[in-house]
Amino acid sequence: MDLNSFLPLLQESAENFERLRRWIGRLVEEGALTQSEVESLDLDPTPSADDLFDAPIRPLVVAFFGGTGVGKSTLLNRLAGEEIAQTGIERPTSREATLYLPAQGKFKLPPGLPLSKIKTVFHHNLKHEIAWIDLPDIDSIELTNRELVFLLLPYIDVLIYVVSPERYRDLAAWGVLKERSQAAAWLFVMNHWDEACEEQIEDFKGLLKTLGFNDPIVLRCDSRPDFRARKPDDFGQLEEILRDFARTRGTEQLAWKRAQRRFLQLTDQIAALTETLEKKSKGVSHLRSRWRELWKKTVEEVSPLLAGSAAISARQIAAQGLSANWNPVLWDTWTQKHLLDALDRLALEADQPAICRELAAYRDELLKEIERQVRLGLQQSLAAPGHWLQRHLARALSVLKYLLPILLSGLAGYQLVLGYFREVYLGIDFAVHSALIIGVSGLIPHLACRLLEPSLEKAAFRGILRGLRLGFAHVETEVEQRLERVRSRLAELALEGRQLTGVVGDAARRPLLLSPPQGQPASPLLDRMLAATSGKGSLEIGTRYGGEFP
Contact at 8 Å (CB) between 465 and 277? Predict the structure, then answer.
């Protein structure tokens, strides 16, 4: 296969897959989604028919699929031109897969395929453009047959579904197979055409249309050994289709069709994950209001107990003073647990790994943050105790209790000197009254200053309460900020998911532009050989009616 024109698309595909891997890695690493939520996105390389051959140019891989007794091996022998596959009820291929490969091809069996269940036959007379696979009967009671078919499906280019006039309606097994291989190219052969009629062909086409084939290729074949007795059929057209498919780079087109289908599937999966991220992002806004309710209720429940603990601590500080290594003992085990339970309840209601991770990281800091705010509030309160008016009055009275006695003493001395020069005797009454007024002028401001002096215990109590309020407010704000960070990351990842949806979707809708070799046109039948829908509804109908379409 000449992949020169296909390499840019493969390179772009690899780049998109690498970008997807990084995005999914961030989803799990940052806790936006769990590992189980992203497991549906399979970015590993899918096996293909290229893995069967160790050469840049390989043959077309065609497999025969169908029920027991429909003539798969007989049709294979006719296509090969000689008896290379055993026929009959107990043929070996009923329980194993047989690969009929050109002898000149460099074949390799990929790891993971059961060697004991796969028989390889090299033949010199086979058409070199095509490698055949005779699959085991899918309708056998042997469950290993179906498992083997499913293992080989990714390595097949074209599946020839062989039916007979008696069993062409038995499509339940085919529906299961089609569900597992949406990107395969399909050809349908009504074998034993000598026993069928045209109405059965039309009926078969109608059933295939319900399964997603808008214009299925249904061919008639009469593979009886006596070629002179054969009824005119479409065997020559079957050979020409396979030959043209191999010659017109049908394998390249099929590979890109498979990539397109995988891109479309990834687009839907990425869009679903993006919607989940957007829903979680919107849910964080509700969690912020829910957190405010939880924290407000928690603070109201623990406040009475904390007020009692604050009063005890204030008395200790008033008696012993505030040391540099003082640690507030404000809460017992129940109070601590109650405060931390608010975070745990929020994490439980959120049920998001990213939020749980953020809250778990802050859980050990919650009590420490409240303690820091209590220490800060206590230091500020003790540095400036009491009300500002109380402090200013006390400062003024502390000055007056010295200033007034001095002024009054100066006035009494002035009167004494003035009386001396005037030769006036002031008497005992003057001395007693002067002493009393001087004493009272100092005593009253002193007593008032003592009364207005702030209480160290009250200041400490108010400081602790203020620190608690600040600590509670800081915890509430910090949790909201952490929730907002989670919401921002979810929104950012969702935006990147939307961008990836567009990139992968554009890649899936892009046509494959090939320059056909030697002027050969691209295969015009490929679209007819691919199913347009998943066929789930038809499968349900077939199951409902016992595995046969009505």
Answer: no
The count of structural domains within the chain is: 2
Torsion of the alpha carbons at 259, 263, 264 and 265, rounded to the nearest 10: 100
Which residues span the domain enclosing 84? Answer: 50-244+529-544
Confidence of residue 36 (pLDDT cuts 50, 70, 90): confident
Average pLDDT over residues 417-444: 79
**Domain annotation covers residue 397:** no
104 and 5 co-located in one domain = no
pLDDT of residue 490: 92
Structure tokens at 121: 């036959």
Residues 339 and 468 in one domain: yes
Q: How many CB atoms lie within 10 A of CB 487?
A: 20
Q: Is residue 444 part of a domain?
A: no
376 shares its domain with 480 = yes
Which residue is listed with tokens 């038809």? 538
Structure tokens, 370 = 């409240």
Share of the chain above pLDDT 70, in %: 78
Q: Is residue 121 part of a domain?
A: yes
| Local structure of 150: helix, strand or coil | helix
Q: Which of these, 64, 48, 150, 75, lies nearest to 99 by C-alpha position?
A: 64
Tokens representing 445?
């401001």
User: Tell me: the pLDDT tens digits for 299-319?
Assistant: 999 999 888 888 888 888 777
